[in-house]
Design goal:
about 0% strand, mainly alpha, 3 helices, about 100 residues
Length: about 100
């Protein structure tokens, strides 16, 4: 029988927070960017972006738990959120 260390439990907890909290932030930024970027009527663009957000959130959760460390998961989620947030800010300023 193997013992589960506190380090392992902490890594799982950190990944869980990154997947739930960080994934939500990343997904909401991506959804807003998709809704703005689609050349459709506003209602259609928001509907498509909302439907795609479920795919994005699922992919983020899968990626967070597939990485080699919790630190890499956090860095990835924060970096992608920052890039998408900057793009959303630029597109929002242009609109």
């Amino acid at each position: 029988m193997t013992t589960i260390t506190w380090r392992y439990r902490g890594g799982v907890a950190a990944r869980t927070v990154a997947a739930i909290g960080g994934g939500y932030v990343l997904t909401s930024i991506a959804s807003a960017l998709i809704a703005i970027a689609l050349p459709l009527p506003r209602a259609d663009a928001v509907t498509i972006a909302t439907l795609l957000s479920f795919v994005v959130y699922t992919c983020v959760i899968l990626w967070v738990f597939a990485t080699t460390s919790a630190l890499r998961a956090w860095i990835g989620v924060v970096a992608v959120s920052a890039v998408l947030g900057a793009a959303l800010w630029i597109v929002g300023r242009m609109a």
